[in-house]
Amino acid sequence: MGNSKSKRQLSQTKHPRNYSGKKPFVIPQDAYPYAGPQCQYKIINTPVTIQHNATFGFSAGQQMISTNVDSYYPILCQPYNEGYKLATFYRVPGVQQQGGFFSASLNIPYQGIFSRYPDTVGPDQWQLKVVKSMIQTQQIRYGFFTNTSQSTGDTSHLHQIIFENSSIGGRLSCLELTGQTVSQGMNAAMVGFSAVMGVDLFFDMPLHPNPTMYTYQAVNVPVVVNYQMGFRCPTVTVMCDWQGHLSTYLQKGWKLVETFLDQTQQMRGAAFTSSVTLNSMWFFEKESSRLNDDSPQYQGSVVEFLHKTSAGFGGSVAKTDWTPLLQDMGQQGWQIASIMETPEITVSGLASVTMKLLFFFQRPVEFISGRYIPMGVAVPHSPVPGTMPTPPGFKCFPLSTDVDTLGLQSEKQ
């Protein structure tokens, strides 16, 4: 992110990080007006109840945490009648309300974000399908003096469900942890196995004949989080080239569908510092007929959002709203793909918390005479038939295969 240029990021879009005024975000600026279609959004808020049950998990199959999130899924199907499709179903982080005095239940807001390009709506019809899955982790500790541990999440069932539904024309929309937790018994816990965590996968299933088939791939992107002990709370530094990883696959013709933390992590601790490496899974899709075609179809942008919450009587409430962010980005053609919560948290006062979220956007690219033109770059008329001049300030870099552990090699300033 920032102003660094990537050899694969053929773009005139700037990604600023300086926040001014009262807005908790800064949208990327195009060097020239974007001439593509605008993206429209529709948001549905659902208050989900999560119940903590009185169980110690000694026996396998016990519901440690239950949820009523399933009861809201019929509501999420309604926007499909207006041409919208579900982009992401996301639990609003840091916000919850206790169900009542001495109650073991919590009311937690989830948000369904739908999007559409009204000028490009075709005759295809879709319906929403939800498939249940799960994740279980196993923790291994080693290194008595270094305080090192590793937790590995099993996501094989997620891959199986995606393959089964995409093979009949379904398109993955998003996936989300439901909050449901089922114990696996004392014997499993003693060897490091966690309780099973529920995951719901959302698919757009075709109602029209001969749907376009899509192929999916999951990419593991490590996220390094460093903690430095402080007076009140630790200083958190997150290391990951979000924009670089996204651009790498968009430049190869893929489209981002979802980013997901699969609960895999490796932790190293010392006296005043610690480091945790999280594993994020990025799901991409491409038309199966174009599997060997690396022509880019989308441009991506990662926008930071400062999500603020405040604790009060019986719970905590959100002090920021990302609806203006979606509206501003939609006017420039940007479509939301995923929202990721980061460990970067700051505390101010007694009850105010600010958390950094990442919004992943993408929009269709433009092709003129078979040549890729980055979004927002005005292309002057070519005086010679069959040639295309380079727009002002635009540099063409060859697609390099040199990729370091944090992302892409950057051009030296």
Outline of this structure?
The protein is mostly beta strands and about 425 residues long. Helices cover about 10% and strands about 50% of the residues.
Strand content: over 45%
**Portion in helices:** under 10%
Number of strands: 21
The separation of the N and C termini measures 15 Å
The overall pLDDT, averaged over residues, is 79
Major sheet attributes: 17 strands, antiparallel
Quaternary: single chain
Unreliable stretches (pLDDT < 50, length at least 5) are 1-21, 375-413
Structural class: mainly beta
Radius of gyration: 23 Å
Task: Spell the H/E element sequence.
Answer: EEHEEEEEHEHEEEHEEEEHEEEEEE
Specify the overall morphology: globular
Number of helices: 5
Question: Which labels suit this protein?
Answer:
413 residues, disordered C terminus, globular, 17-stranded antiparallel sheet, mainly beta, disordered N terminus, 48% strand, two-stranded antiparallel ribbon
